[in-house]
Design a protein that fits this description.
The protein has a seven-stranded mixed β-barrel with strand order 21-22-23-24-27-26-25. It is built from 22 helices and 27 strands. It is α/β, with parallel strands linked by helices and about 650 residues long. It is globular. Bound molecules: alpha-methylisocitric acid (MIC) and iron/sulfur cluster. Iron/sulfur cluster binds next to loops.
């Protein structure tokens, strides 16, 4: 039996476990990336592990999220990360160089290699045939120290692409179609491989749009073959020697196959407030819009912005619309400036931003109240834009630009003859904004610079013998990490300060939660399906840890968040019978008797006693030998200190 692309890469990096679906495999990690909003914590954790120099082939730290710098906090974090990188052997991509996933794809990614990143959109690297996975900061810290990265062996899904996109239909529309078919939880426990004749019609930046937004499916990662098109892209980046060919075997076996005829797709949008709430632009109709934002790690490539520039050329942004554009990298920005496309964009009235995440994570450009905002981004969760009642639609760059001019939702196919933008034979690459680490012999003399906002990792304790606490919060289905630990311009600067950021935990759902959780001393959270979807931010586990959360009991978890809870020493439990969700209310007194013994004995079925309602509720605690020991130790940091 042959192998899929992902199985081939896993096999070549397997350190422990067996490649049977659902069992835990430990992988050797070749490359890591961090960004600044998760990076400070990841490097504090790396320091705590105590390995002097990273053991990966390449580790890169990017500054792209926290670039508004409305106070000293962000700049202090940047300096901290820069100095840690210099000391410990990590490449440092300076602020202004671009969004981590865009730059990593352009400059560092290699087909066939493994990459983990402390950001959920790390799977962007799958666009050039990497096995690229989003993880918590602590997992990245451990991998930098040479430790394995563990996942449950996923199922393999094949998406067969046939035909060719019609003019004005975009790669974004392909992934929106996949989201429409599979939903935001359809990819959990799966790796998605794209194949078929249609793959040959897609350039690397287009493939990367698709693998990027595979994160919204909940998938472990997505991957394209590494073919001649990949080679051309890498050659144009001056990195042809990094290319290797990679296909799945003819007789590879997939657990699920989905067929998509590209020629049948039309421009679409993910409507508020979920990336899988997909409709065609035609169905939405010519509704009035207030804002358009173009950029983010999904759609800010040279190709994307050249298409946007061609649409805007000679036109003016509609008087009732604000158009903001953030190129994905310095390389993209530079090329647009040199070839004159930037002038066309400026002339049309766009508000040009620096190359960073910006509005995607609520760092500026929040829309007006109830404002309808069309964005080329990947997430439209409620409140993420910074405007509580903002109505965010996720669209392609072509739909975004056409609508910005018309002032209403506009199908770009109405624009007439399509623009044909070829991929350049050579990109304007220049790594002058990537600082190399100090040579080994000089590392001891590098001083790590810490600002006053940088507080240590929260205190952890080994798992208690018994847990007797109350339910401090009950939430519904599809809770995102943006609900648990909101981002945005006010809260992001607190990412290095867990006590301060904890004051904002779950306040989107219930503003009294932090106060109540603290007053209870210890407590349990109850949730529905796909709990913790979205971002990789481990703050969504560390803030609850700081607030005394001992366990989270839900119908089902999203992958990265579940791993982050375990890393923080918080018990991730699922209801054996989903209907028991109705048997717990906020404020109820709950108990997990003899929990330490039960977990040590490897029991996977436990009883959660609701003392208030007099009910015994069976819950499942599926831990492997390693994750069991992590929970017993009180989290991955303590476990790693003891196990090396
Ligand atoms: C996001 O898109 O939500 C983020 C901000 O990039 C996060 C990381 C973070 O919260 O810092 C992610 O996707 O992992
Ligand atoms: Fe940045 Fe947005 Fe991409 Fe997250 S999704 S890495 S915030 S651009």
């Amino acid at each position: 039996m042959g192998y899929t692309i992902a199985q081939k890469i896993i096999k070549a990096h397997l350190l422990s476990g067996e490649m049977t679906v659902g069992s835990e495999v430990g992988l050797k990690i070749d490359q890591t990336l961090t960004q600044d909003a998760t990076g400070t914590m990841a490097y504090l954790e790396f320091e705590a592990i105590g390995v002097p120099r990273v053991k990966t082939e390449k580790s890169v730290a990017y500054i792209d999220h926290n670039t508004l710098q409305t106070g000293f906090e962000n700049a202090d974090d940047h300096r901290f990360i820069q100095s840690v990188c210099k000391k410990h052997g990590i490449y440092f991509s300076r602020p202004g160089n671009g969004i981590c996933h865009q730059v990593h794809l352009e400059r560092f990614g290699k087909p066939g290699k493994t990459l983990i990143g402390s950001d959920s959109h790390t799977p962007t690297g799958g666009g050039i045939g990497m096995l690229a996975i989003g993880a918590g900061g602590l997992d990245v810290a451990v991998a930098m120290g040479g430790g394995a990265y563990y996942i449950q062996m996923p199922k393999m899904v094949r998406i067969n692409l046939t035909g060719k996109l019609q003019p004005w239909v975009s790669a974004k529309d392909i992934i929106l179609e996949v989201l429409r078919i599979m939903s935001v939880k359809g990819g959990v426990g799966k790796i998605i491989e794209y194949g078929g004749e249609g793959v040959k019609t897609l350039t690397v930046p287009e493939r990367a749009t698709i693998t990027n937004m595979g994160a919204e499916l909940g998938a472990t990662t997505s991957v394209f073959p590494s073919d001649e098109i990949t080679r051309e892209f890498m050659k144009a980046q001056g990195r042809e020697e990094d290319w290797t060919e990679l296909y799945s075997d003819e007789d590879a076996v997939f657990d699920e196959v989905i067929n998509i005829d590209l020629s049948k797709l039309v421009p679409m949008a993910a409507c508020p407030h979920s990336p899988d709430n997909v409709k065609t632009i035609e169905e939405i109709g010519p509704q009035k819009i207030d804002q358009v934002c173009i950029g983010s790690c999904t759609n800010s490539s040279y190709l994307d912005l050249m298409r946007v520039a061609a649409i805007l050329k000679g036109k003016t942004v509609h008087p009732d619309v604000s158009l903001a554009i953030a190129p994905g990298s310095k390389q993209v920005y530079n090329m647009l400036a040199r070839n004159g496309a930037l002038a066309d964009i400026i002339e049309a009235g766009a508000r040009i931003l620096e190359c960073a995440c910006g509005p995607c994570i609520g760092m500026g450009q929040s829309p007006n109240s109830k404002g309808i905002s069309l964005r080329t981004f990947n997430r439209n969760f409620e409140g993420r834009s910074g405007t509580r009642d903002g109505q965010i639609y996720l669209v392609s760059p072509e739909t975004a630009a056409a609508s910005a001019i018309a002032g209403v939702f506009t199908d770009p196919r109405t624009l007439g003859e399509a623009v044909d933008i070829p991929l350049p034979a050579k990109f304007d690459y220049n790594d002058n904004m990537v600082a190399a680490p100090a040579p080994v012999e000089e590392m001891d003399s590098v001083e790590v610079l810490r600002g006053p906002n940088i507080k240590p990792y929260p205190k952890t304790e080994p798992l208690a013998d018994n847990i007797n606490v109350r339910c401090s919060l009950k939430v519904g289905d599809n809770i995102t990490t943006d609900h648990i630990m909101p981002a945005g311009a006010k809260i992001l600067p607190l990412r290095s300060n867990i006590p301060a950021i904890s004051e904002h935990c779950f306040t989107v759902c219930d503003k009294d939660f932090p106060m109540r959780a603290k007053a209870y001393g210890g407590s349990i959270i109850i949730g529905g399906v796909n709990y913790g979807q979205g971002s990789s931010r481990e703050h969504a586990a560390l803030a609850p840890l700081y607030l005394g959360i001992k366990a989270v009991v839900v119908k089902s978890f999203a992958r990265i968040h579940r791993a982050n809870l375990i890393n923080a020493g918080i018990l991730p439990l699922t209801f054996e019978n989903e209907t028991d969700y109705d048997n717990i209310n906020e404020g109820d007194e709950l108990s997990l008797p003899s929990i330490r013994k039960m977990i040590s004995d490897g029991r996977t079925r436990l009883l959660l006693v609701n003392k208030t309602q007099g009910k015994e509720i069976p819950v499942l605690c599926e831990l492997s030998g390693r994750t069991k020991d992590i929970i017993l130790a009180g989290g991955l940091l303590d476990y790693t200190k003891h196990h090396g």
